Amino acid sequence: MPETLLTSLHIMAAFYIVAGISHFIIPKFFIKFTPSWVPSPGKVNILVGIIEVSLGIALLFEETRSVAAIGVIALLIAVFPAHLKYHQMVKGKRKYLAVSLLRMPMQLVLIYWAYTFV
User: Fold this and answer.
1) Using alpha carbons only, how large is the chain's radius of gyration in Å?
2) Are 14 and 56 contacting, i.e. CB atoms less than 8 angstroms apart?
3) What distances in angstroms separate CA 57 from CA 18, 33, 85, one per listed residue?
4) pLDDT of residue 74
5) In terms of DSSP H, where are the helices of 26-96?
6) Looking at residues 35-54, what average pLDDT do you find?
7) Exposed e or buried b for every residue in 27-64, given b needs 16+ CB within 10 A?
8) Could you tell me the pLDDT band of residue 70, with boundaries at 50, 70 and 90?
9) 63 Cβ neighbours under 8 A, 6+ residues apart
10) What's the pLDDT band for 97 if we cut at 50, 70, 90?
11) How far apart are CA 65 and CA 83, in angstroms?
């Protein structure tokens, strides 16, 4: 694997590991963006954190990289409603509106990035 691709992979893995750990350190931050139709938001937050850490670690190993990349894509699609809720929450306040608007198309960039490792 070329060095630039390996660096990209390590950055991606670190991103998901740190994001996953964040679910345990600041759960209230993530739970407040959980759509109301999601059952047991606290448990779902923990599950998402475990999944993100696991996928981040799995990306580092050639044997599990492709499956992990597919898992990352599935996770990004699954959490998209949280980004929509975040946008709805900040839209009326106009605070963080630009951030909320960037988060949604950024999901497509992250999906493409993961796809490069399938």
Assistant:
1) 15
2) yes
3) 11, 25, 28
4) 98
5) 27-31, 41-59, 62-78, 80-91
6) 96
7) eeebeebbeeeeeebeebbeebbebbbbbbebbeeeee
8) very high
9) none
10) confident
11) 26
Residue 14 is encoded by which pair of tokens? Answer: 């670190």
Is the torsion defined by CA of 111, 7, 9, 51 positive or negative?
A: negative
Which pLDDT score is estimated for 106? 92
| Backbone phi and psi for residue 61, each to the nearest 5 degrees, phi listed first | -110, 130
Task: Show the tokens assigned to 47.
Answer: 């599950």
N residues, the chain:
118
Question: 117 is written with which tokens?
Answer: 């490792």
More confident residue, 91 or 115: 115
